[in-house]
Amino acid sequence: MYEYGVPEDDHIALPEGLDLEMQFPMAVGTVGDFASETVAKVIGAEGDAHTTRDEVIFSAQVLQAFDDSLLNQDLSFNLRLLAAAGFYLGDVPGNAAVQISKLSQLANPEGDPLALAAKTAMDKPWGQTGNIVNSSYATDLLGALGEHFKTGGGGDRATAAIRKLRSWSYASASAHELLMADLLGAISATRIANSAWTLLPQYSELSGNSWQPYLSRPTSIKEMWPSQRMVGEAGLYKGQSGVVQMPTSAGKSRATELVIRSAFLSARTKLALVIAPFRALCQEIASDLERAFRDDGYNVNQLSDALQPDIEFDIFDVSIESAPQVVVLTPEKLLYTLRQEPDIVQRAGLVVYDEGHQFDTGTRGVTYELLLTSIKRLLPDSAQSVLISAVIQNAAAVATWLLKDESRVVSDKSLQARRLIAFASLPQGRDGQLQFNVASDSEQDFFVPRVIIPEQQPRLPREKTDRYFPTKESGSIALYLGLRLLKNGGVAIYAGRKASAAKIVRDAVEQTFRRGISLEPPSAHSDPEEIRRFVNLYSKNFGADAYLTKGAALGIFAHHGNTPQGIRVAIEYAMRQRLIRLIVCTSTLAQGVNLPIRYLLVTSAMQGRELIKARDFHNLMGRAGRAGMYGEGTVIFTDHRLYDERDTESRRWSNSVNLINPDNAEPTGSTLLSLFEPMKNETGTRTLGKPSPAEFATMIVDNWEELYEAIGNISTELQSKKFSVGSLREQLRAKKKIVEAIESFLMTYRSDVDTENFVANAKDLASETLAFSLADQEQQALLAGIFESVARRIEVRVPNTEDQHRFGRTLLGIDQALVVEAWVIENESAIGASKSADDLFDLLWPLLTQLSSEKRLIDTVPEGALKALADGWLAGRSFAILLQELNVLDASYPYGKYKKSFDLDLVVDLCEQTFGFEFSLLLASVKESFVARATEELGKSLTGHLDLLQKRLKYGLPDQDSISYYEAGFSERVIAQALSEGMIWESARSRNGARKLIRQYPNDIEVILRDFPSHFTDVFRSTVAS
After folding, report:
1. Which of the two ends of the chain, N or C, has the fewest CB atoms closer than 10 A to its terminal CB?
2. Does 346 lie in the same domain as 223?
3. What residues contact residue 994 under an 8 Å CB cut-off, 6+ apart?
4. Are residues 938 and 974 in the same domain?
């Protein structure tokens, strides 16, 4: 109740007869017994008693809870010390670290050297410990610990010191000293047993001398957490492959670093590929690895995700003289690169798939699955493959497919931070409450009263109706709770859709804080300098009066698919550094980035019309309660109707409860198999029986245009059952994307054989996919049949095998590739005459709009408005100016029966998704077609223009100079241009060129970056130091 700010007068009285202090003897005794048994085992005096880890963890939780209750603050030091020791000895080092951090907030006790020594042993025993405590027994033991963490020795000395301490304490010590002596001995023994000095040589089968340069550094890993030990026990540090199911916050980043470091130290390889599904995650991984390997001479490269061969291929060099290389990239970039240079993978001795459960995530899932299928074909048998995921339920099935061995699974379900689940409730006639553990059969439920207390707000001019905050809407309740709780730690408000997330921020700016409330804005608990920097960046991007800029000034930040990439990364960094406290996000929060969130406030479990997948929800929940930072995380469902109407709306309630149970998470599937899922109505409650899903799939391959037209004439009966033309066509387009990915895949692997052999090879390729591995016999036959149908269609539409190979490199399907090819042939002379990237874009615009899936490109009025938007994007103009220019043109697009003007979120979406992603993909195809027909000289000249245009479209930048700074790590349009303009005396022609200039003129760069979020200063410092 203290945590939730409930006034003391409203605290719920403890049940009569319940005295929490009476639980002390049991809790303290359990921790002490476990410590005593640990020491006895170390000195060879093990007895019959065996206290379980679950018992000691529960005891630590009891001690922590009493400390948090503030019922007796005189006991705080001992409570926190005992809780930390219980968690640590119970193998929950994340929670132990939180308790140690809280312990450091208190003054050290007088005359209790063993307690102080136990605290030191759990904290940083590798520091200066010689004169910390006034006890020769403790000093000897701490000295042995310090020696161990400096040199890897000291083990025998520590055991001898533990034995002496034990003998003295059991002969002469008081009861308190005896307890502290056992804790000190047990903690020290466990420290050495779990230390990297002890375990890494054993796990990697490398000598201690091999590890010595790394382990002797202050920044090296000192102790291995449970998941990291399991990875070692499974042989991954000595080159074994595996599928790793590791909970969020369990030490995955360190484990990945150690797998790579072991591979390089053992000389098994000089090239490691790390594949991560999102740009932000790639950037985070690359930054972490760059810091980790800075003193080793290992190179870390993050490739741009522009689909062009902009790779300096010496980063794939594995010659004797070359330094070991880590290359971090997205699946799309690697798939494109493989289709240009397939031997790259053959040079890799290690491939790591981070967030490796992406096989059933729509079109990207198909790309991911076909990428891994390609890598499986190309990777040498001696290479190591490691797939890591926190939420992969059927790891054995994936291991069977990827590694041909279901036993190659490392699974650890232990959590390093506890999570509580609560539901908001608005009882009739009372203030709002939070109901805890009501969805759990194994934990005691309870409630916290008076957590939601609506307050009347001042009226705005000409308003006659009183307004209250929060309202009964889930978004309003989430904002209210976030404002009350953020003083305790980071808060994320989750919304199922981008528009919902934007509304929460907009309402906070235009309604809640504009009217005024008693609660402080998040900026009051944020770093004021960081807020200033963000407001400056937002003003330059969106304008000073934009709701996003005003939200940033309040300390409220949107984090979703329409948040520009550079801003999103800056927000994540600021949250990690605790410079800001509150974000409003969509499922972008589940995309692997590490954020220190204590509270996750869930406004809705729906994503559009669909319930969020249990697997994705657990990935979200994993962000609450960062191990080592918060002892626990709390997930609060803020839609009060879920709990208050659980009897009348039982289905909605049961859906929410099912999301919480990890056993209900779906197994990882394959988007390829969704080809054979039935067509559904708008509500998902009915399916079409005829044609069958298999017949639909075949028609998509062979008769796409006729099928698409036919869907426009569905019967009145079907319409009455909630089937609509729009919904059915949307489902068809999704299935068509899958077919196009198969077309591209088969064309890539088209060998010079006749048609029947090609068809047979296609069916073999089908059998190599995860989809085939997961499918039943009927689905396997259907999948093989689709691959056969696609192969025969390829032979008919593109009979020339060289054209097939070329089309396969574009990542487009046959139909779009042929449209591009025909256009290039028709416009070949005009393309050749183009003198610049801008000339090419003007020429290409009709083709790009024809092939784009974005309907607004066609139906926006006035004609030419979105061409002007694209030109402004290429010129590097801010989103605020781009929107202003559309408003001057009075631009609008059809919205139902009406016309709608453009807003800031839509402008960002068009620029980043349509121009930045879709157009870039189409440009790659144009280049392939043109270069294949042009002379070498002309092809080289036009390739330069096309590559520049593609990157300008990707990033929204005007020239190569600003692109170079963007790709050097300053991945934000305003900042990249500010650096380019600030260095007018010298131009950067590449990423490496920009990095060189940054090192050459650090003072000039630092001055520019002072007005932008600190993430970019961190990038700058890393660049200068590298």
Report:
1. C
2. yes
3. 964, 965, 967, 968, 979, 988
4. no
